[in-house]
Design goal:
globular, mainly alpha, 11 helices
Length: 220
């Protein structure tokens, strides 16, 4: 039987595991590249003339963001020989809206990307929970948390609402503030908010944690 292209269900014992810190680095890496590209766009254009043809800092940042996203997905594939579902969805949106940004030379498309991604993630989590009675969030956090079904359902509901709230926040930020402020908030605002929200869920995770099965001594 051929190995599946997409990551296996979290309950599947054959699911490939990846170090949580490495997984976090692969997810945050493209965002850091995006921030660096926007803040140092003129410097990059001066040292790499090919980037000067792309346009101003936000367009250079968009091009680098797209490249970093592809590299992160490729690294995930090399490590597990599968593609992570939610980063893949995010990557597709990055490439589509990034390409539109560069082709039409209109930064609005890349600014809409977080709104689209957060709305998709929120819709997927809530839709999976209410229509299919399954927690898609386990695909993201299964290696970090070992909790019961009720815990996953509650956590999924909260994260689904959180993603929709972040979609609304992105709309407020990009429509009312400068591009530089939006880029900075995208990296230094959304990421800390996600960390704080995750930490705020620790009491729920603790209440629904499952004990790790004891390993039997060798030879038994």
């Amino acid at each position: 039987m051929s190995k599946p292209i997409f990551e296996r269900d979290p309950s599947d014992p054959a699911r490939e595991k990846i170090n949580p810190m490495l997984k976090l680095a692969l997810e945050l890496g493209p965002l850091i590249v995006f921030f660096f590209g926007n803040s140092r766009g003129e410097w990059l254009a001066g040292h790499f003339p090919v980037l000067a043809d792309v346009g101003g800092p936000i367009f250079i940042a968009t091009a680098l963001f797209m490249a970093a996203t592809v590299i992160a997905l490729a690294a995930s594939w090399m490590l597990t020989r599968t593609l992570p579902i939610m980063p893949l969805v995010s990557g597709v949106v990055v490439l589509v809206f990034g390409a539109l940004t560069l082709w039409l030379h209109d930064e609005v498309f890349i600014k809409l990307k977080p709104t689209i991604i957060n709305t998709i993630f929120g819709g997927l989590l809530l839709g999976g929970l209410f229509f299919f009675r399954t927690s898609l969030l386990r695909y993201v956090f299964d290696s970090a948390f070992n909790i019961d079904e009720e815990g996953w359902n509650k956590l999924t509901l909260r994260w689904g609402l959180y993603f929709l709230a972040m979609a609304a926040v992105n709309e407020i930020i990009w429509r009312n503030f400068s591009t530089d402020f939006w880029v900075a908030f995208k990296v230094w605002g959304f990421t800390p908010l996600a960390i704080l929200f995750t930490l705020s869920q620790m009491p729920l995770i603790t209440r629904h944690s499952l004990d790790e099965p004891e390993k039997k001594p060798a030879g038994e």
